[in-house]
Amino acid sequence: MIRRIVTALILVPLAILLISLAVANRQSVIVSFDPFDPAHPALTRALPLYVLMLMLLTGGVLVGGIAAWLRQGRWRRAARLADAQARELRVEVDRLRRRLGSPLPAHPLPADAAPPLTIPPPAR
């Protein structure tokens, strides 16, 4: 519930800002993709200014996301290796417990399960 409220507190002002930006910048601008002949450009497009700004903003977010994803590759690889190693160690522990006949469970308790009390609670 808190997450929805925080999301709304961020997204609603952002939407209002983007809508007001679009309303304030409706004039058309000419965008040229021909760097060789500025007098008679071959590749031109007339766009509303807000469309151009939103396209550039979206492109920047995409480029930034891709760059962050590429830079975090080593951490994802380390996490995959650690996960594989943990799986191998669990298999080895299970094998050793079966060989030794240990009464302990092969898999640990779930993270949300309360651990057994070893120390009695204080007297009131």
Secondary-structure element series: HEEHH
Helix-strand makeup class: mainly alpha
Helix content: 55-70%
Averaged pLDDT, please? 86
Uncertain runs are: none
**Any idea what the radius of gyration is?**
29 Å
DSSP, total strands: 2
How many angstroms does the end-to-end distance come to? 37 Å
Dominant shape: elongated
- Order of strands, main sheet, comes to 1-2
Q: How many helices in DSSP terms?
A: 3
Q: Beta-strand percentage?
A: 5-15%
Q: Strand count, sense and closure of the main sheet?
A: 2 strands, antiparallel
Description:
The chain has 124 residues and is mainly alpha-helical. The protein has a domain at 2-55. It is built from three helices and two strands. The protein has helices spanning 2-24, 49-71, 73-100, and strands at 28-32, 44-48. The chain has a two-stranded antiparallel ribbon. The mean pLDDT is 86.
Task: Summarize it.
The chain is mainly alpha-helical. The chain has helices at residues 2-24, 49-71, 73-100; strands spanning 28-32, 44-48.
List keywords for this structure.
single chain, 3 helices, mainly alpha, 8% strand
Can you lay out the helices and strands and say which pair or pack?
Blueprint: H1 2-24, E1 28-32, E2 44-48, H2 49-71, H3 73-100
Antiparallel strand pairs: 1-2
